[in-house]
């Protein structure tokens, strides 16, 4: 066994443990390149946000990290939990990567609507239970103990996300923002070291966005879980992220701290549809203006409210394919 698989992944330059190490991955669908030669590193205990216009390749990146898609080029290694040795995720099934310490939520809510909120969370928790079907059928002591512990853990997670009073409500009867938080609770039930949140604020109101920002910080600071976030709401992103990576047309165009990204001419150009030179001139003329936060908030609201034909847009019926 090589030394690489015996020691945690650590960045020599920063002395920080690496969670995801992505090197020059390229993902193609026929003649369409969804991700083009993208490299990035995510470090332990940080909140890393991936932003970019619609169609930039953000969800395709998430799907590559979690085994849904297999990039044709490049490598991805993962050290899911503290002290884990880095392992490749290329070619591994999604449930295997989940057991390696990765949980995720989806752009489209994927709850079990006919189950209660408590039962939905227990679905995630029970992926870590050791008792098998025979022990369950016979009601053996270890199975009964695990069942009690999983129920208590589910209540704890519902309390964490502010839904303990909704424990016995059917998931399909919850408000949209509550369903978003329930999906996060279910993901946390798998005991992850890193959680991937794909547009968790989509379809939520300003109060729910504020509560979501507090929840993301709580998951990261109190539970010690690294957070990888895709989100179009720039005010939310800028308020919670430690670092940002920007994609555009499948390529990484910028990486840095929120204040650096906010005034990066290439990023402004990607969002506003201008040239980098025009964006740089605009930023220099108005250095106090938070261009991305102000401009993209309006653009996102418009995109979420209407379709090109003028019809109303329902975020619960959109597909992952639309966001690649």
Query: Based on CA inertia axes, which overall geometry fits?
Result: globular
Radius of gyration: 20 Å
Counting copies of identical and different chains, the oligomeric state is: single chain
Distance, first to last CA? 38 Å
Largest sheet: 6 strands, mixed
SSE sequence, one letter per element: EEEHEEHEHHHHEHEHEEHHHH
The CATH class designation of the largest domain is Alpha Beta
Spatial sequence of strands, sheet with the most strands: 6-7-8-3-9-10
At the fourth CATH level, what is the homologous superfamily of the largest domain?
P-loop containing nucleotide triphosphate hydrolases
Mean pLDDT: 82
The CATH topology of the largest domain is Rossmann fold
Number of strands: 10
Q: What structural class do the secondary elements suggest?
A: alpha/beta
Number of domains: 2
β-strand percent reads 15-25%
Provide a count of the helices.
12
- For the record, the CATH architecture of the largest domain stands as 3-Layer(aba) Sandwich
Q: Outline the low-pLDDT stretches.
A: 1-8, 287-291, 293-324
The level of helicity is 25-40%
InterPro entries: AAA+_ATPase (IPR003593), ABC_AA/LPS_Transport (IPR051120), ABC_transporter-like_ATP-bd (IPR003439), ABC_transporter-like_CS (IPR017871), BCA_ABC_TP_C (IPR032823), P-loop_NTPase (IPR027417)
GO cellular component, one term: plasma membrane
Protein name: Leucine/isoleucine/valine transporter subunit ATP-binding component of ABC superfamily
Keywords: ATP-binding, Nucleotide-binding, Transport
Notes on the structure:
With 324 residues, this protein is of the alpha/beta class. It folds into 2 domains: 1-101 and 199-306, P-loop containing nucleotide triphosphate hydrolases (Rossmann fold, 3-Layer(aba) Sandwich); 111-191, no CATH class. It contains 12 helices and 10 strands. The chain has helices at 58-65, 94-99, 117-125, 133-138, 141-160, 176-188, 206-221, 234-240, 258-262, 265-272, 276-285, 291-305, and strands at 18-29, 32-43, 47-51, 73-78, 87-88, 102-104, 194-198, 226-230, 243-248, 251-256. The strands form 2 sheets. The protein has a 6-stranded mixed sheet with strand order 6-7-8-3-9-10, with helices on both faces. Strands 2-1-4-5 form a 4-stranded antiparallel sheet, with helices on one face. α3 runs parallel beside α6. Residues 1-8, 287-291 and 293-324 have low confidence and may be disordered.
